[in-house]
Amino acid sequence: MFVVAPAAAAATITVKLEPKYLVTDSVRPTVTISGASGNSTLAYRRYNNGDCEGSPQMFSSVSAANGTHTGPDLQTGNPGPHSLRVSYGGLNAPCQPFLVQRKVTAVTALPKNTFESSERVEPGIALSGGLGNAAGQVEVGRWPAAGCGPGKATSVSILPVTGQPQGSVNLQDGSLGTKSFAATYSGDERHTEAAAACRDYTVGAFIRGKVFEDADGSATADAGEAGKAGVVITLRRPQGSTATATTIETGAYEFFVTASGKYTLIAAPPPGFDKTTNLELQVQMVASSVGEQNFGVVELPSTLLPFATAAPQVTGGVPTLDGLEELSTSSEGFALIRLLALGLVVIAALVLLWLIFAARSRREDDPF
Predict the structure, then answer these.
(1) Dist CA 363 CA 345 (whole Å)
(2) What is the pLDDT of residues 269-326, one digit of tens each?
(3) Who contacts 60 (Cβ-Cβ below 8 Å, separation ≥6)?
(4) CA angle 296, 297, 299 (to 5 degrees)
(5) How far is it, in rounded angstroms, from Cα 81 to Cα 100?
(6) Cis ω on the peptide bond leading into residue 319 (within 30° of 0)?
(7) What are the UniProt keywords, alphabetically (predicted)?
(8) Alpha-carbon torsion (293, 299, 304, 309), positive or negative
């Protein structure tokens, strides 16, 4: 009678190794042996390529049994692809590739934080921490709001990397508002991936115009007509808030706005001046700057200037007149003054005619 002994279970080995390490990290594999009937030689071989080809470097060989074992430090300090082959007895574990990399940092910068809609918005992008032979690419993404979110960025450009990113990026998209961007580096076999910090920037447009002394009353700023300094212009934004600007020596003013919508401009003529154009203008802002938002004013004749009519105190039994209010300097006040002046002229003419008529009547009644 023959008795057949059951076949012995085959031993298995499992190797755990991370796919990437920094040049400053320890590279120690973990090997688990199971199903072994005794001790056998556990060997570690490291290759300076990613596919366990060529001549290996023997790091260690020890006698080991079932259990979990920590291998030697495989770190070489040389960035690039490496691989590990572990053998136990007559068993060879699959080749384990891993990368040794230098840590890279990505940095972005803008020349300023606020741009006019007609300007290019070109960030500087730099990589640091590499050996100068970095490859891969940098992708630049833009968000339509501050803070790089919410949602996914719009890819603006992908720049190849040869040591540093090559080429330039223009973030300008032709719309107003506060936006944000970030740059990410893909990394390569010798260099880690990297992401630059999010950066905000603002795109706006100008509303420009002038206040001019409209000498000919044409309501148009003609050649030779001087600007009027010191005039306050009020800007009413679409959401209702306001801002003010004062015209400079040339009569010019400007506002920088960062949102599209309908804006209202209101001018206040200085004392002694009346308007020759509308004092309120509306501007629809989309993306581009707008100019020629002009206001015309004309100096009033001295006889029509507002004045105080308070009479002086008179002694000697003559009654004292009460002071009258100063007349308005608005356009309606000036119209009232003109009407009163015309009325006084008419009254004076009527009185003169009456005096002439009375004199003639006396001569006719008294022939001597």
Answers:
(1) 28
(2) 999 999 999 999 999 999 999 999 999 999 998 654 454 444 444 344 433 334 333 4
(3) 43, 44, 71, 72
(4) 155
(5) 6
(6) no
(7) Membrane, Secreted, Signal, Transmembrane, Transmembrane helix
(8) positive
Q: In sequence order, which residues have a C-beta less than 8 Å from that of residue 52 and are 6 or more positions away? A: 45, 83, 84, 85, 95, 97
Enumerate the β-bridge partners of residue 204: 116
User: What average pLDDT does the structure give for the chain?
Assistant: 87
What's the 3-state SS for the chain? CCCCCCCCCCCEEEEECCCEEECCCCCCCEEEEECCCCCEEEEEEEECCCCCCCCCEEEEEEEECCEEEECCCCCCCCCEEEEEEEEECCEECCCEEEEEEECCEEEEECCCCEEECCCCCCCEEEEECCCCCCCCEEEEEEECCCCCCCCCCEEEEEEEEECEECCCCCCCCCCCEEEEEEEEECCCCCECCEECCCEEEEEEEEEEEEEEECCCCCCCCCCCCCECCCCEEEEECCCCCEEEEECCCCCEEEEEECCCEEEEEEEECCCCEEECCCCEEEEEECCCCECCCCEEEEECCHHHCCCCCCCCCCCCCCCCCCCCCCCCCCHHHHHHHHHHHHHHHHHHHHHHHHHHHHHHHHHHHCCC
Answer whether 80's CB lies under 8 Å from 187's CB.
no
Write down the pLDDT at residue 272. Answer: 94
Tokens of 226: 């001087």
CA distance 205 to 286: 9
Place of tokens 């719309």: 175
**Minimal CA–CA distance to 184: which of 193, 173, 171, 174?**
193
Residue 217 to residue 93: CA distance in whole angstroms: 97
Whole-angstrom Cα distance, residue 221 to residue 210? Answer: 9
Question: Encoding tokens for residue 290?
Answer: 């707008």
Q: What is the pLDDT of residue 90?
A: 87
132 class by beta-carbon count within 10 Å (0-12 exposed, 13-18 middle, 19+ buried):
exposed
Partners of 43 in the β-ladder: 61, 87
* Stronger pLDDT, 344 or 8, i.e. the higher one: 344
From CA 315, how far away is CA 368, in angstroms rounded?
44
